[in-house]
Amino acid sequence: MPTRRDKAFLYGILIAVLLAYSASWLHERTVSFPGQTNESTLGPWTFDVNASDLSCIMGHWKLLGVYSFKNQSDVFIRMSYSPEGMRNVGCNYFMITGRFRLYLRPVNDSVAIREVLFVVENLSEVSVDPIFPNQEGVMYFKTPDGNFEVTEARVPGLEVWQAIRAKALRPAWGEPLELTPIIPLDIDRKNDGATIEAKVRFRIEVEYLVRTDPFRSKKRKLRIEIPAVYRLYGFEDCPYECEP
Question: CA dihedral in degrees (152, 155, 156, 159; nearest 10)?
Answer without folding.
Answer: -40
